[in-house]
Design goal:
By secondary structure, the chain is mainly β. The protein has three helices and 17 strands. It has two domains: about 130 residues, Thrombin, subunit H, CATH 2.40.10.170; about 120 residues, tm1086 (SG structure) fold, CATH 2.102.30. Strand 2 and strand 3 form a beta hairpin. The radius of gyration is 18 Å and the shape is globular.
Length: about 280
């Protein structure tokens, strides 16, 4: 795969694990009108990570692993926009100092996956460094495909290749119709992710690559027939109407530029940690 990766720079960004937040009223109301109070965004979330189901948890806006941001708003914007899926992360403070992991995507925070034993020693306020590299990446033999939020070292792990017909061949775990696309539409694709209104029981897992049909994510997330966007599912359950598990955008372009290969095991495998079901499927 010919790219311009040799021309990309690396910037070291710093953030901290942000605590879960709530207002004094606590409860929210789901799409069926039922009140609920559940853990979700922010903090250190154990028991969810690469390979765990995106649904079935008693959670709301589930963010697996570490939820990272910067206290300065403009610095936090840079953290969101410049961090890419697959970027290496090092813990800078607290009992887990020196532990390493990977960025798995963006939501309200930058989401980081570390080994569970390292995360178990972490707490809100612990600082991390992210080696941000990937924005500006281009696939030189596929000018119609726009790359977003992708560390170039992930290309091989994703098994992205040029097919015999010259199209970009990408394995995906599912093809998602445009009717399932919810919150995130209209936002720039370097920020947060696209919430999908998926069934409450789905075989999809955190890290699975999915293709969003009829979506153009070049300059913002919008509906466009005969285009698509591809990315890994980075968040889990959400009870609010119009929200749900969603992918961070990695690739987007006209449908004819892609050769999608249906593969239930297609995963970004960004974290470098073992899946719970490591006996089969794509692994690092």
């Amino acid at each position: 795969m010919r790219t311009n990766a040799d021309r990309l720079l690396t910037q070291v960004l710093v953030g901290e694990v942000w605590p879960p937040l709530s207002d004094r009223f606590a409860y929210r109301v789901d799409g069926d009108g039922a009140a609920f109070l559940l853990p979700g965004m922010g903090g250190v979330t154990l028991g969810a990570g690469i390979g765990t189901p995106v649904t079935g948890h008693h959670a709301d806006h589930l963010e697996p692993g570490l939820s990272v941001r910067h206290r300065d708003q403009e610095a936090d914007n840079a953290l969101q926009f410049l961090t890419c899926v697959g970027n290496p992360v090092t813990v800078l403070s607290g009992p887990a100092t020196g532990a390493t992991g990977r960025v798995i995507g963006q939501h309200a925070y930058v989401l980081v996956d570390l080994p569970q034993d390292a995360m178990a020693e972490m707490a809100p306020g612990d600082r991390v460094a992210i080696r941000a590299r990937g924005q500006g990446l281009r696939l030189l033999d596929h000018p119609e495909v726009t790359v977003k939020n992708l560390d170039p070292t992930l290309l091989d792990r994703l098994r992205i290749t040029t097919g015999p017909d010259g199209r970009l061949r990408v394995p995906v775990a599912a093809r998602i119709p445009a009717t399932a696309v919810g919150a995130g539409t209209g936002m720039v694709s370097e920020y947060a992710n696209t919430d999908l209104m998926l069934p409450t029981a789905t075989p999809l897992r955190i890290g699975d690559l999915v293709a969003l049909l009829d979506q153009d994510h070049r300059f913002g997330r919008t509906h466009r027939p005969d285009w698509l966007a591809i990315g890994p599912l980075t968040t889990g359950d959400c009870r609010l109407f119009g929200h749900g598990p969603g992918p961070s955008t990695l690739l987007t372009g006209p449908t004819h530029a892609f050769d999608l290969v249906d593969d239930p095991q297609a995963s970004d495998a960004a974290s470098g940690t073992q899946r719970p079901d490591d006996s089969e499927g794509q692994r690092l």
